[in-house]
Amino acid sequence: MGEIEQWEIPNNWKWAQISELGKIVAGGTPSTKEPTYWGNDINWISPADLSGYNNKLISKGAKSLSKKGLEKSSAKLMPSGSIHFSSRAPIGYVVISKEKMSTNQGFKSLVPADGIFNEYVYYFLKSAKQLAENRASGTTFKELSGKAFSLLPIPIAPYKEQLRIVAKIELLFSDLDNGIENFKKAQEQLKIYRQAVLKKAFVGELTRKWREEQTGLPSAEELLQQIKEEREKHFQKQLDEWKKAVKEWEDKGKGGKKPSRPKKPKELPPLSEEGLNELPELPEVWFWKKIGNICECIVPNRDKPNSFTGNVKWITTPDLQIDSIRINYSNVEKGLSEMEIKKYNAKVIPLGSVIMTCVGKFGISAIVEKRIVVNQQLHAFLPVNFCYNKYLAYCIQYNKVFFEKRATSTTIQYLNKNNCNSMPFSFCSLQEQHQIVSEIETRLSVCDKLEATTAEALQKSEALRQSILKNAFEGKLLSEEELEEARNAPDWEPADKLLERIKAEKEKTGNKKSF
Question: pLDDT-based confidence at 365, cuts 50/70/90?
Answer without folding.
Answer: very high
